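Morning F.,

Quick status update on the modeling queue. The single chain you submitted on Monday has been processed. Sequence for confirmation:
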Amino acid sequence: MSQSTPRPGSPSPGGSKDSAPGPGPGRPATPGVRASDAEREAVVEWLRVASVEGRLTLEELTERTEAAYAAVSRDDLEGITADLPGMGAPGAEPAPLQVKRRFSAIMGDCKERIVGRIDEPLEAVSVMGDVELDLRGAQVPSGVVRVQATAVMGDVKIIVPDGIAVELSGYAFLGDRKVAVRESGAGARVPVVQVTARAVMGDIKIVDDEHHAPVRRAISAWWHDRRS
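Structure tokens below.
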């Protein structure tokens, strides 16, 4: 008896599963499908909207934006937005407005961790004292923080999240202006901190978490690796 010829698309007798047709319309995508640049940019925009709605702090927005640009697969992108509602969902209640915008130290110290919503420029003034301004927990709907920093025979330190972009302008007379942050990838739309610095016999520094507490960060990384 003659053997019938298989119809197109039908598995041949004794054929393996590898010959089955691949993903197509109506079939779920295979796990680990590589992400495209357009998909990465869409997730970054999703994160920006979530930040505007008050769902992400500046630190979270920066970390997730960086992770989105580094994502290899669609699964990686899905993990970044897993705890966020879909685009167009009702907005969350935003964080309280950061009412205090001027931070000064006159022959003393001033340390502030901003956790409110920043809608206006901040000002840090040090005269023979030290001002430390931590922006990592702030909510920044616009994605841009503007700070005017003045140091006269004193120091101003501004702490920002890892991976953020910093734009520094101004001048230093018998003093120093310094940025110690890890640079973000070229072309990445990461949040920005713009600092106008005026230093007269004083120092103004903008540092990220890695440069602010390197020893603590190294211990934390060691402990994490030890437990994993």
